[in-house]
Amino acid sequence: MADHEETQQPEVPESELIRVRREKLERIVGLGFDAYPTKADVDTTIAEVVAKHGGKTAAELEAAPVTVKIAGRIMAIREFGKTAFLVLSEKTARIQVYCRKDMLPEREWALYQNLDTGDWVEASGALFRTKTNELSVKAAHLGFLVKALRPLPSKWHGLTDVEQRYRQRYVDLIVNDGVKATFETRAKIVRSIRNYFDTHGFIEVETPMMQPIASGAAARPFQTHHNALNIDLFLRIAPELYLKRLIVGGLSRVYEINRNFRNEGISTQHNPEFTMLEFYQAYADYNDLIALTEELLSDLAAEACNSDTVAFRGNEIRFTKPFARYTMKEAIAHFGSIDPADIEDRGKLEALVATRAHRDPADVAKMNSGKLIAELFEAVSEEHLIQPTFITNFPTEVSPLSKQRRDDPEIVERFELYIGGMEVANGFSELNDADEQDRRFRQQLGEREAGDDEAMQMDEDYVNALEYGMPPTAGEGIGIDRLAMILTDSPSIRDVILFPLMRPRET
């Protein structure tokens, strides 16, 4: 048996392999084939063939012959003298094409002799099963679609190649069916989310990606300039304030699956460009959204993964309702083994943040109490929140867009949902008091002047919108990328973003 897998010859320079492939392309053109045909002669896909006929026995295929016309990329070539098998791939499905010299026209057999792994071909013929019971196509016709001028890598896994996989996602997708499956699952997640909101009375909308004011979240923005208008603009860090303007306008249930841009560091959980679901519901409060979120994610896990339990980083994540709940201070005390009384003592709280969150005491002294509590929670609690867990009762100082609780103005009606040690969702009863919103914005301006460049900017038009009256409303954002990580057991956010941002290669 001979194998055309030239990638098993690492001693041959890639430039030489490319030269050989170009020579083969010239020979294929010399046989009368178009180097770049405009279409393929197909009547089905490989996936459809496997799904429809994969369960049939050899006897069934012989008794009721099935002829198919398919196309795909050659992933392997196995030659047995005057016969050969081409393993064709399309998405995550594969099938063999059986070629015999005495069954193909002379020109098409010559074509086969100039094919390489990575090339795209079309084939037609009857389905049958080989002696090893492999579903195969007995080729009566073999056509050429395009030559892969570069050879496929023989080893595309492991830490040494991880950055190259992200940089050349097209190659990663070619050779790694698991990556294709991840992005098919991601597409299923987005489709399921749309279906849920469309069937629950929400309207899908679009809001500006370029905004004159970076608002709606605490984040550092990207800045750009519009030449014709001669104005600076920001890539949106969140669509929140525009979506709530729509609530003011009378669209009582809206959602947007949106791209956000935040000029922040890159980690396994952060990419500067990411996808969020944001939705707003009039006449509701944050408790309503907690119930909605439990239903949405339970249904989503069942639809995307066919189970309410998924594996993520060695943990079994259960999406069974109801999810666990802690207030922020309860989570700090429980997971940080901290006396609740120490959280209420400013001096002890500062000391805890300095030691447990590893923050400079001089910086800690400048933080307001709400910021200190949020910092301590992040340091001692987040990593322990593996099962879906709602954290409630956020400090007012770190929640400039949330409505305060009636019984305690120091905290707001807000929750965050954590899964797998990551924040996945953030929701709250929306502040609709225009005067209070104006005061909160001005407080944020003070934070910016004190050096917090992630504090929100003043948005006077949004305050103006609130003065027209926004009914009681609850809103929420859910990170699509992090949710996809969990439902596909992907360790890094880069694994669920087709083209993540990468540092340029040094020349």
Structural commentary:
- By secondary structure, the chain is an alpha+beta fold.
- The protein contains 17 helices and 19 strands.
- α7 packs across α9 and α10 packs across α14 (369-380).
- The radius of gyration is 29 Å and the shape is elongated.
- Residues 5-9 and 156-160 have low confidence and may be disordered.
Brief overview, please?
35% of the residues lie in helices and 25% in strands. The chain is α+β, with helices and mostly antiparallel strands.
Biggest β-sheet: strands ordered side by side in the sheet: 7-11-12-19-18-17-16-15
CATH superfamily of the largest domain: Bira Bifunctional Protein, Domain 2
Tally the helices: what do you get?
17
Relative helix content = 25-40%
Shape: elongated
CATH topology of the largest domain: BirA Bifunctional Protein, domain 2
Assembly form of the protein = single chain
* Overall structural domain count: 2
Percent of residues in β-strands: 25-35%
